[in-house]
Amino acid sequence: MKISTIIIDDEPKAIAILQNKIERLCPALEVIATIEDPKNAFEIISEKRPDLVFIDIAMPGMSGFELLEQFSHPDFEIIFATAFDQYALDAIKHCAIGYLVKPIDNEDLVEAIEHAKRNIEDKNALKKNKQLIENLGIQKFQKKKLVIPSTDGLEFVKVKNITHCEGVDGYTKIHFTHRKAILSSNSIGHFKKLLDHKDFYHVHKSYIINMSHISRYLNDGYVVINGDIAVPVARSKRSDFLNLLKNE
């Protein structure tokens, strides 16, 4: 018997990669739908009633946790794709819910699916999912830490310590208040979605700044971060950015 499966991720490439891995490594699964906009997910899941749902946590407009909150009877098995801190992982594991850290490793995927298959047979998804909804401070999750893949492994960093992100040749250099910058293989667009919050502003195609670390704004179109770092503000964004500063 096939395990009906839905994949939810705002990045089409991520969906394609995961779907390909599932087809090659997990023949027991049948992907019956893929969803890029999480706002459509509630209706599709309610209609198709899948056995298993892969949910990306960090999605613009609605996080994976916020999506789960919409269900009064979430009786489907879940495997989260996560880029969040150890507290988040511990909380998910405490409820015996599956998770995968991007980029997804083949062995980790197979192990998570085997675990999910056992849970589906035991029919205990509803209890676990409700426990997760009740126990987690969902909004606080996304504001505490990020897990950033770097050249050396995974870096667990506090969001409040990020001064700005700088796009460099398809990679992203993340700058901090009191430590050396780290280089992530993810693009600046990836971090724009992760840091989609009023405390951060995408001032330029290559820069995202933490508003709480602004020292001053210069008339020639630069904002000074952390006392002495000048970051350009795109001409098309200066008016909106200045209005935001005045309101702050």
What's this entry about, in short?
By secondary structure, this protein is α/β, with parallel strands linked by helices.
Would you write up a description of this structure?
By secondary structure, the chain is of the alpha/beta class. It has 9 helices and 15 strands. A 5-stranded parallel β-sheet has the order 2-1-3-4-5, with helices on both faces. A 5-stranded antiparallel β-sheet has the order 10-9-8-12-11, with helices on one face. The chain has a 3-stranded antiparallel β-sheet with strand order 13-14-15, with no helix packed on it.
By CATH, the architecture of the largest domain is named: 3-Layer(aba) Sandwich
Structural class: alpha/beta
Q: How many strands, what sense, and barrel or not for the largest sheet? A: 5 strands, parallel
Strand percentage lies at: 25-35%
The name CATH uses for the topology of the largest domain is: Rossmann fold
Strands, helices and their partners?
Elements: E1 3-8, H1 12-25, E2 29-35, H2 41-48, E3 52-56, H3 64-69, E4 77-82, H4 86-94, E5 98-101, H5 106-122, H6 125-135, H7 138-144, E6 145-150, E7 153-158, E8 162-168, E9 171-176, E10 182-184, H8 188-194, E11 200-204, E12 207-210, E13 214-218, E14 222-225, E15 229-232, H9 238-247
Parallel strand pairs: 1-2, 1-3, 3-4, 4-5
Antiparallel strand pairs: 6-7, 8-9, 8-12, 9-10, 11-12, 13-14, 14-15
